[in-house]
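INFO  loader      accepted 1 record
INFO  loader      residues=542
INFO  predictor   begin
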Amino acid sequence: MGRADPEEGQLPAPVKPPDGGWGWVVLFGCFVITGFSYAFPKAVSVYFKELMKDFHVGYSDTAWISSIMLAMLYGTGPVCSIMVNQFGCRPVMLIGGLLASAGMILASFTNNIIELYLTAGVLTGLGMALNFQPSLIMLGTYFDKRRPLANGLAAAGSPVFLSSLSPLGQVLLEKFGWRGGFLIMGGLLLNCCTCGAVMRPLDMGMKRKMGKAQDKYEAKEMLPIGGKTEEGISTTDGTKKAKKAKKKPKKGKKLLDFSIFSNRGFIIYTISKFILVLGLFVPPILLVNYAKDIGVPDTEAAFLLSIIGFIDIFARPACGMVAGLKWVRPHVAYLFSFSMLFNGLTDICSARASNYTGLVIFCVFFGISYGMVGALQFEVLMAIVGSQKFSSAIGLVLLIEAFAVLIGPPSAGRLVDALKNYEVIFYLAGSEVVLSSIFLATATYCCLNRGKKDEPSAENPSAGGGSDTEEAESDVQEADEHSSDNHQPAHSTDNATVAASEEANHVTEEQSGEGGGCPEGDREVLARDGCKADQTVERDRF
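INFO  predictor   done
INFO  writer      dumping tokens
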């Protein structure tokens, strides 16, 4: 996931993911970035009451801070894709970490709510967006066989950080006020720069080392035989020019690859994800107010979200392990569909919960299903489009999800104000999630599986979610074949030269009286051996 090679003007061929090694460090960085990206907009809500007092605004005004952060996280997806394709993941993440930190630090010096929108909302939200998307791209670069487990572990950062940042924010608020809390939180966001620094590109160094070793081997093979240094050098230069001529059509990665819309699997995934987001976030947003309306004390009502977060921590890695099983991974889209169905039915069945025990049971099952959805959503997308097009795909998907985020929860809030009935909202949200599940499973079976049976078995893996390992292995095979083609002329020329030398000596002994000439019959023998008569005379004189 690096920038185009400046020496040759093209992207390096994909390298086989190591599925470990430095990839575990990349996974930890992705864990931290995911935690900050999803938990920070929610954790900052602990400062809202103090902001309302200082700036004399209402709750809806302060709530826009979190909404702007989430809108920037989702809506700037295409911008992140363009920057990653142009500059690479590591530089973008370093800039994003600085922006996120600078936003919170500047927010601690603001004097009105509009300045907070621009600093804590826009600037910090943009910085987190520039960290979140590249971290997922790097995770897909380093993992292939263990990618479902890696995605599950990285997704667990969201509930872990949510359960940590909220209490920390409360402590900072009590000791230093909201300005001091914002300043310290801005310092914590500098850890995003550290996570960006460990996102080492996988392929650039390996390709350069392989190219130098291959050129050195070719020169070593061709120079000694025949003593023709100039001929060996010219052949090596010709080989380099031939490689560059073959690679010349590849002029670097597109800034934003819209060709993924020709992938039916991507279209199906995008539509189902849009429907899913309309109802997925509604229950946890309204849960606390719903509990208070049925008579649950404030402390116990707030504890319900902690139950969801605690279950979510274990559900995501566990679901990632299940998705990585050999007999499950080819059908990961159906597992994702099942997780959405599980979540939707949980919302519908709990709509009539009228006591605290019923809400606790709802939180347990919602935490399991919500964790499954969170662990599988990006794994399914990687499987559909492949790692090479994932940077463009995730940017476009997040942009489409941004519209659903702006439509779903606000519409649910308006319905609650109009109907004064949470039961209808839970039924509606659950029905939307169930609809997305049915659409994904049905469309995948009818449009994709049946289409594969009708099409030839030989297809391009990168166009339809093939394994990244297979892509890398095919590129390695092409490199080996190309290398063998370059070496073959040198060996055949060497054999022909040796054979010509032996024939020349034999002819010289028998035809010494003819001035070292070569009879017609002997010339025919030399021609069959791949050498001309004048080449034999040159070799004999040398």
